[in-house]
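Morning F.,

Quick status update on the modeling queue. The single chain you submitted on Monday has been processed. Sequence for confirmation:
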Amino acid sequence: MTETSIGKILIVGGGTAGWMAAAVLARTFGRSMDIELVESEQIGIVGVGEATIPQIRLINQYLGIDEDEFIRATQGSFKLGIQFNGWHDREGSYLHAFGDVGRGLGIVPFHHIWRRGVEGGQAGELWDYSLNTRAAMANCFARIGPGESEPLGGINYAFHFDASLYACFLRTLAERQGVQRTEGRIIAVELDGESLHIDRVRLDSGQEVSADLFIDCSGFRGLLIEQALKAGYEDWTEHLPCDRAVAVPCAHGGPMRPYTQATARTAGWQWRIPLQHRVGNGHVYCSRFMSEDEATRVLLDNLEGEALAEPRPLRFVTGHRKRFWHRNCVALGLASGFMEPLESTSIHLIQSGISRLLTLFPDKDFAPALIDEYNRQTREEFEYIRDFLVLHYHANGRHGEPFWDERREHKVSDRLATRMALFRREGVISRSANELFTEGSWLQVLLGQCGEPEQVHPLARAIPSEQVDEALRVLKGRVDQIASRLPGHEEFISAHCKAEPL
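Structure tokens below.
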């Protein structure tokens, strides 16, 4: 440590964002740096059944978390993808499955091979060649790596869990590493008169806490980044107009499915997230087209089991801070922005923000180049996710419903319009290397919402039909073989990570 090194970090707010930041920073810096977290039990967190994407396994591995212990502690289950019901039309559904779909031939991506097979009557649905999809639709699960499933890529998975329990789990890890927790409600934020950096915060007890670097995990309030530093907010309601949600847990009324469900409703969509002890449910909707009472009724009428609590309303504005890192403060989680949970990106954005901060970690001089690069990368990530979410709404086939008609007619970004045009022509998928969602993700949503491309790609036409036939037959047979011997999802959990009843 030098005189200019960051000596203390203060994290404001707990929940998943605060305690994930605390755990990772403590794991990285050990006891060479003071890390303190201030939170108040008087202030609730937005804790619901949470669905994630596979990248969460990376941060769990970095923290040395035993996966079975983590599943038990959070009442968790496994997630193989997201099933979208009623988006392309009112009756249809498709799965955005994690993991590989088929396997290409040389430089030719698999979906071009598959499209050639469809044209010749040699192929079934694209998802017949996805091991994750086959497992999900059979309510099965197992940890299978690429080596056990050649030539397939194994089973790629994420988790469903109780977000409040996950925050508690991370808190235990962080405190073991030396993070100090302080109970209290912040009533004032004091700025340095010369630099205008945050100098200290004052608690309702009268205690003052100072630090070099502040991390704002105070949720929608943005206590530091917005209320104190006025970073500004970029409103994306024009692109993603849903601004309300109502959430409620219910008892299991069906199998513990190894996938999230997102079902389109008249003015939004409903989520279903299966945990071990209950099912998390919510209805995301646009208040211009539906009242809270109607949204609540739609949610309660479509539960699979008995409601276990009173429905809880939530309000939000999709978008992000104009500056995620401003002066000596970095915002994470809901303090940094909000993207509706359609593709389960909330925890990933916390995770990527922490990772980006570590890569660009400052000294006390807070070099502007570091701050500018952090903000550029974070804004870019938000924009890529926004386009992916907009695709779901724009490419809908729910004609005759005002909300969905408006979404279909709304002008999308030039980048998204180009992607859709390339895919519709001959199945070309264009993406940047640093985007969150892979070619496989774009493929499944584009196909599920836009239908098949107009023509087969020329590269696939150059492959002899016998070779296409053989490749499709071998892949389908391998998927069938592996899927047939998978244990049930609940069976796997009972054998490896069954939680104690709450």
